[in-house]
Amino acid sequence: MNNFESQLPFIYLKPSEIYITECPSMVETVLGSCVSVTMFDRTSGVGMICHCLLPQCKNEVPCDGDCSEGFKYVDCSIRRMLAKYTSYDVKRSNIEVKVFGGADMFNAKTATANSIAVGKQNIETALKIIKREQLNLITTDVGGTEGRKIYFNTRTGEVHLKRLNKAG
Range of 116's domain? Predict the structure, then answer.
């Protein structure tokens, strides 16, 4: 990060949180099996990032946007981020999307033949929704067995990534 970026307000994003801003800031989060989706619109300068624990909300009632646990889920978070961009009159074709995380932190050898690791489910859910919504996916850094620390610059939309090695 350059000197200007180090002068930006610093935000630490915890699991099950979302951050939406028009003001330049640096958002840091640490990911294992969780997934973060960043969205950025260069025209409005609005940046968003979520830190999701699980792929899909199991609530049988359609989400109205007021659920207190919605940001825990990939599907609900992306839906809410898109709704917020709609409220800013941002065209979906202008939104730059990036996806990070979804590591298999608990060793795939322990999974049964019929189970899919939660990290992989998080990735699949995010990518499926992004494709269905015809969003502009710029980059992904997903899967594997290492955690990640990411820094999202809400002024530029850039994401700096640091891999976290497993403790031996």
Answer: 3-164
